[in-house]
Amino acid sequence: MPQTDDVNLEEVYAFALQLAKDAGKLLDDAWRARCNGDGLVDQVEKESSVDIVTQTDEARAGSHYSRTFKDVEAFVKMKIESRFPAHHFVGEEAYSKGASRDYLIGQDPTWCVDPLDGTVNYTHIFPMFCVSIAFLLEGAPVIGVINAPFMHQTFSACRGKGAWLNETQRLPLLRNPIPPMPKDAPKGCVFSCEWGKDRRDRPDSNLHRKVESFVNMAAEISGRGGKGGMVHGVRSLGSATLDLAYCAMGSFDIWWEGGCWEWDVAAGIAILQEAGGLVTTANPPEDPDTAKIEEVKVGSRLYLAIRPAGDSPTETARQGQERTVREVWKRVRHLDYVRPDA
Amino acid sequence: MPQTDDVNLEEVYAFALQLAKDAGKLLDDAWRARCNGDGLVDQVEKESSVDIVTQTDEARAGSHYSRTFKDVEAFVKMKIESRFPAHHFVGEEAYSKGASRDYLIGQDPTWCVDPLDGTVNYTHIFPMFCVSIAFLLEGAPVIGVINAPFMHQTFSACRGKGAWLNETQRLPLLRNPIPPMPKDAPKGCVFSCEWGKDRRDRPDSNLHRKVESFVNMAAEISGRGGKGGMVHGVRSLGSATLDLAYCAMGSFDIWWEGGCWEWDVAAGIAILQEAGGLVTTANPPEDPDTAKIEEVKVGSRLYLAIRPAGDSPTETARQGQERTVREVWKRVRHLDYVRPDA
Asked: Are B203 and B254 in a shared domain?
């Protein structure tokens, strides 16, 4: 297997950037073709199920979405394999074909790709869909490129080279100076969250835990028995990848979510970390005030992201981010998404 | 006062289109200037209050947001007044200066403008902000133009001339054929809703009524005592104007909201209606199965919007939309936003 030392990051980054743009063009062509009547309207649903992914391939069979997804994944995989034949490739398709539920990404140079993130958005032609391409070394995402063709937005980052919107605007966008985290965070923060596909209406289901957490974050400060967070806004886009990208931009202060897989988050994490953001676990520890704040595991399925921050007169950027993490942990419930061997 | 007969709609439409693009350019310049350090970061909050609007002007004083808002409104008003001096002009500024809470738009030719919709988004530089310009005759929005400069999206419509994205793509986007409403709607639908600014944590507050409605729409079909709607996705963008625009595009099947004012919705309603959508009231009538489905009043503050639909083998487009309205009404609570003399 190739050694990490052999990898020329600059070369890989340039390749990934072009690849995301080319793949984004395929997505762009595909939705435009649908508008011209080429392709049925097929609102294929991933029904509520613990086993979402394995069910998906069947449900998608024959649908336009499925064709687009498979075409773009095949294109990206082919391009990577011919240019970097020794690298690993991890995608949703590979996973759903029966890989175990182990962590999928090891120490070797690995590509992790979601050819079409924002499934439901794409199906309904809501612009928040994208292709997401990450490259990892020793399990860490060091390159990420996200292309959202409908909105003409490309987010990219390579470790040590900054994070960028459309290769010209450095992220976060507000950086003269980068604003510190609000002093009463989560008050003043834009909070991004997703309803997801697990809609079981059972006591203490993930749906109920999520909604309880959302309401805590949203309610007035005096509300919810002291848990009211009075966030500035609550947003739900339907794309984990773009949630992370907008955290990197500084648009979203906080993103909290469970249930994603590696390909949903790897590129976004690379971009957010390079922009100066913090990503850790969604699930609150026993003592949120004192627990060590660990760096996220890409395959953990539980994510809490904080935007890049600046120093304030009274605390460093990292201190402000960690304070925000603790305040979120005090307001959210544990989510029940497991990795069997985690 | 000018008579409706004197109005040349084609001339007004061309003028409104150019005006929205010019005003959008001002917004685009303003956020870019902030990125370059010109302007403080000022997350001015409209605190929770029944009387949100009158409080706003003070809270905004001196902020970058306030300057941008006022500059763009002054520009738009000046342009309209010099070209069409006999027309009325209604904007948030005029209203907050002490106009009564009467319906603001009468029978005469009237412009209704929101120079910057998506306040919180703009403040945090999340791309979902826009300028919104409507022209009304006899109280009905007959022209609407929305420009969202960060995303390069212009939505426009003039009665009888179709609704358009960027003047080139007719709305809804999927139109060969236009999909009928899903047979089990709201299942299969993308449901757009907003958390809003009223975050009071009191029994039966608007926050609680909204959340109860959101959860009904989201939960599995068997859940919530039969009210589970299992929508395909739940989205919250933080812009009523863009919620309506994405309904016109066909991206959102259902938008349900209370609390907006005329300038938040007038242009969006013009575009959605011209695209073939239905807009009625958010609050369910006594008998949702049989009540007449009235056309929306622009100033009603309560909105339920359904996307343009096609006929199915078993029902007309309108029948499918009305069926969807009734199914939403069965799942949502009354919201408590009043118009004192309504």
From this structure: yes
